[in-house]
Design goal:
The chain has helices spanning 18-44, 47-61, 68-76, 80-93, 95-104, 108-123, 126-134. It is mainly alpha-helical.
Length: 135
């Protein structure tokens, strides 16, 4: 049996107040951050990708991070994460890095690079390692 034609159209409208809009924006931001962080974690979970990121960092900054000790660890299949962390700590303790760090602090871009270096240092346990060695 055919359907009868509509005689009227009823529109239902839902309006959100400011607090509901803010709650939705917060939820969307958290959801977006979760998706981005999941992608970054998946990207860095592979050793090859981490090595490629380190090579890119060396190419952009002009500073050597992958040293002979880290290459030996890669070849022997040893503790790669520990080797990366130790290589990063050695790089950060060098006189050349200290001098560049203070020079970069005078510019906005250099300040962001120093901030990135400090975040990497925190992720590699540099602060804990330095405190442990001071005792």
């Amino acid at each position: 049996m055919p359907k009868a034609a509509a005689t009227q159209v009823i529109i239902h409208r839902i309006e959100l107040q400011t607090t509901e809009r803010e709650m939705i924006q917060t939820a969307l931001a958290a959801y977006s951050f979760r998706n981005v962080s999941k992608g970054v974690f998946n990207l860095t979970s592979d050793v090859t990708t981490v090595v490629m990121l380190m090579i890119a960092y060396e190419w952009v900054t002009g500073h050597r991070v992958i040293d002979d000790a880290l290459l030996a660890i890669l070849g022997a299949g040893g503790d790669f994460a520990g080797g990366i962390a130790q290589s990063w700590r050695d790089y950060r303790q060098s006189a050349e890095y200290s001098e560049d760090y203070h020079e970069r602090a005078h510019s906005v871009v250099g300040g962001f690079r120093n901030l990135l270096d400090n975040i990497i240092g925190a992720l590699t346990g540099e602060v804990y390692y330095n405190l442990q060695n001071q005792e």
